[in-house]
Design brief:
Structural class: alpha+beta
CATH class of the largest domain: Alpha Beta
Oligomer: single chain
Shape: globular
Number of domains: 4
Number of strands: 31
Largest sheet: 9 strands, mixed
Distance between the termini: 26 Å
CATH architecture of the largest domain: 3-Layer(aba) Sandwich
């Protein structure tokens, strides 16, 4: 993470953490600790908690040696908790926002003259009634662990979004929101292909409270630092980018909105044909009378209109664009008619890319975009831009600053082998031949003029070859490619979800290959980075190196609260056996783990232990499971390609239970599964516990009741699943657990067994029940 500009850790959320009356370990994490000791300018700058048995009003006193009585200040209730406590409804302005959204297309059709006003009035009234019912049945609230949204009249829906999965809360103000004085909040979470939570109409102050409560980022400016508080205490942002209107005009003239505007003009001509056709006919007659000059003027006028509208659209979309950094996040604000402010968590940043299209390259201009895991489909392209346009030097300097590096801007790229140039020469020759043959068939002997295309095709091929380049930096990979849009990817090695080396028959002839770098992209976010047309031997070496890097990162020990979480070694087997026997009250789970260690897929098993004072106090196992075709699929359908891992069993030594260790193991196992490129992860445990970590019922994720190899049922009600950043929708079908892991289900789900009672104890249903299975299932 960057260190030069992310040192200010004080924020509104950090301040509220210090004022809370009860511990909030999930919210007051280490990421929010101040980067320097708090100043002691004021005696009440950090309220001291009321001592046990003290006056409820906060008037209790204590005495210290050599001093008089000291008043214990009353700890105020945080405003966010007071306002957000209990179920809330949307602002009443939601009625108007929803009605305008529904009736907008009808209004356009009325203007176009294709809908009768009486029918339109009925539709508008229906939209108002529907909006009223929707508002009445829509509630939301924030509890200690999640954001909960409930809606629906006939079919009631309840969506629970755990806080730890929330990666950003975007604030949107369209014209219809500004008309009713409200804002919209969109909650994005990890692994979501769509917007997870959407609050369409909130009072701006309530919206700021919600956003601060969920991600610790108010959208309103902070007051200036006073004499009693320095800039660091204010948590001020480090502004990285601010766009000027002149830059936006250049972005509109050279950007990709030109084609979009042309398409919209074509659509409008179809929608309003009756109104436009007479005007078009008159214009055509006028310019037609001018001959070729008139035709050129008409085409030029159309292109001018397209460019003007493109500039206007770009200026409106990116007006007052600002990028700032604070609290380990990037923050963007932009928009004139539609105002947006978004957040990009640095730890979710997967890759950065610098784009230079054909119009911008001669001007030395470029755009910088980021790939962020978990963006909703359709939103990735809107929220990924961190520099709409700037000089090439500014673009790479921004990449350096975001990544905390200083070696990207001046990196020397290694060109592709000479064989890659020969491939493009052959392509140019084949394209010329195909075009010439087509013209000969169409135009006869005159088609031989198609040979003239050899020159532009050859130039295009050489340009494609010169665009190829690659470099390896410390803990990062740089890859460049592209003709019409030259794209330079800067990908941290920690972001890799998978690596693949592929070669087409034509590449194999020249000993070339493509190394694909799979990252956790949002749907519609673009293509994965790739080292195209590199020497096959180099590709193999890089494949092995990156695989070792990923494996080492997954196995690197972590120190948490004085305990060491690391990969299991052979020396731990005996201690793990004793731990499992003590936690489960029998040897079945210990034997299960041993059978999985010695199974046919041993290399894919990852075993974690938690060590304290040289003793193993907790254990979790991560093992791959199979997927078969859906039960409703026709015969002969091949099995799905998705990769699924299971975490089970989880056990914590009895004297270390109820200390959050099990929750740490679940989080670590989930991160390891994501690092290995898994699409889904499943876990066995109490539903209320696993839901805290984003697990849900397997059905909505497309996972069905599976069977073991012997046909016995292998899926129980206590198995839940979760999507991971690499999830692309392929991991769907019938789950097939390994026979030994399926045995765990039969042990866990057997009514009256000690394991069953232990799960109930962990879930809080029967505190007096003896024994502990996976006391790691106790919420942290």
């Amino acid at each position: 993470m960057p260190s030069s500009w992310c040192t200010r850790r004080h924020s509104a959320r950090a301040a509220s953490c210090r004022d809370w009356t009860r511990p909030r370990p999930n919210a007051c994490a280490s990421a929010w600790r101040p980067s320097k000791p708090t100043s002691s300018r004021s005696d009440v700058s950090r309220p001291t908690p009321t001592p046990p048995g003290g006056d409820p009003a906060g008037a209790s006193t204590r005495r210290s040696a050599g001093s008089g009585p000291t008043v214990w200040p009353q700890v105020p209730t945080p405003p966010a908790q007071a306002v957000l406590r209990g179920r809330q409804r949307l602002h009443i302005g939601a009625l108007g926002v929803w009605a305008l959204s529904s009736a907008g297309p009808i209004i356009l059709l009325i203007i176009a003259g294709t809908v009768a006003p009486a029918f339109a009035a009925i539709v508008i009234v229906g939209a108002l009634v529907s909006s009223g019912v929707r508002w009445w049945r829509f509630t939301w609230h924030i509890d200690a662990e999640s954001l909960v949204i409930e809606q629906g009249l006939l079919q009631r829906q309840r969506r629970v979004i755990p806080r730890e999965r929330i990666q950003s809360v975007e604030r949107i103000r369209r014209l219809r929101h500004r008309l009713f004085g409200v804002v919209e909040l969109r909650v994005e979470s990890v692994g979501g292909g769509t917007t997870e939570g959407q609050l369409d109409a909130l009072d701006p102050e309530i919206a700021d409270l919600v956003r601060t409560e969920l991600v610790g980022r108010p959208s309103t400016p902070r007051p200036a630092a006073s004499a009693d508080t320095d800039a660091d205490d204010q948590g001020g942002d480090d502004e990285l980018v601010r766009m000027r209107p002149g830059d936006l005009v250049l972005a509109g003239l050279t950007g990709g909105r030109v084609g979009v505007v042309a398409a919209l003009l074509g659509f409008a001509s179809q929608l309003f044909a009756e109104q436009i056709d007479p005007v078009v006919e008159q214009v055509t007659q006028f310019f037609g009378a001018q001959g070729w000059v008139g035709i050129v003027m008409a085409v030029g006028g159309f292109l001018l209109a397209v460019f003007v509208l493109s500039v206007v659209a770009t200026v409106f979309a990116y007006w007052d664009f600002r990028l700032s950094a604070a609290d380990r996040r990037l923050h963007t604000t932009r928009g004139l008619l539609e105002q947006r402010s978004g957040t990009i968590p640095l730890y979710r940043l997967q890759s950065l890319r610098v784009e230079e299209n054909l119009l911008r390259r001669p001007l030395g201009r470029a755009t910088v975009k980021v790939e962020v895991a978990g963006r909703a489909a359709g939103e990735a392209s809107d929220t990924s831009t961190v520099l709409p346009i700037g000089t090439r030097q500014e673009a790479f300097a921004l990449v350096d600053r975001i990544t905390g590096r200083d070696d990207v801007a001046g990196v020397e790229l290694t060109p592709a082998p000479i064989g890659a140039r020969h491939r493009r020469d052959v392509r140019a020759a084949l394209a010329t031949l195909a075009a010439t043959v087509g013209l000969l068939v169409w135009q006869g002997p005159a088609g031989v003029a198609g040979l003239a295309l050899a020159v532009p095709f050859a130039l295009l091929g050489r340009s494609s070859y010169r665009a190829l380049g690659r470099a390896r930096l410390p803990q990062a990979i740089v890859a460049r490619s592209g003709v019409f849009v030259r794209t330079t990817h800067v990908t941290p090695e920690r972001s890799l979800q998978g690596i693949a080396l592929s070669a087409t028959p034509f590449q194999r002839r020249r000993r070339l290959a493509t190394l694909e770098l799979h990252i956790a992209r949002s749907p519609g976010g673009g293509d994965d980075p790739a080292l195209i047309d590199i020497a096959v031997d180099e590709g193999r070496r890089e494949l092995v190196r990156l695989a070792e890097v990923a494996d080492a990162a997954a196995r690197r020990p972590r120190t948490i609260d004085g305990r060491i979480m690391r990969a299991e070694t052979t020396e731990d087997h005996s201690a793990v056996h004793d731990l499992l026997a003590a936690a489960f009250g029998r040897d079945a789970e210990a034997e299960l783990v041993e059978s999985l260690r010695t199974g046919s897929d041993t290399e894919s098993v990852h075993s974690l232990v938690v060590e304290e004072d040289g003793e193993v106090v907790a254990h979790a196992l991560l093992v791959p499971i199979g997927l078969g075709p859906s039960a409703t699929a026709p015969p002969g359908v091949p099995p799905p390609d998705g990769r699924v891992l299971a975490v089970a069993p989880i056990a914590v030594r009895p004297d270390r239970q109820r200390q959050g260790i099990g929750g740490r193991l679940v989080k670590r196992a989930t991160n390891i599964a994501a690092a290995f490129g898994a699409h889904r992860i499943v876990a066995a445990g109490p539903v209320d516990f696993l839901e805290q970590f984003g697990f849900e019922e397997p059905g909505p994720l497309g996972l069905e009741l599976g069977t073991r190899d012997d046909g016995a049922t292998a899926w129980g009600g206590r198995w839940l699943a979760r999507s991971l950043p690499a999830d692309d929708g392929t991991a769907r079908g019938a789950v097939r657990l390994p026979e030994s892991l399926a045995h765990l289900h039969s042990v866990v789900a057997s009514p009256g067994s000690q394991s069953q009672r232990s799960h109930e104890n962990a879930a809080g249903e029967d505190p007096a029940a003896p024994g502990v299975v996976g006391e790691g299932f106790e919420p942290s």
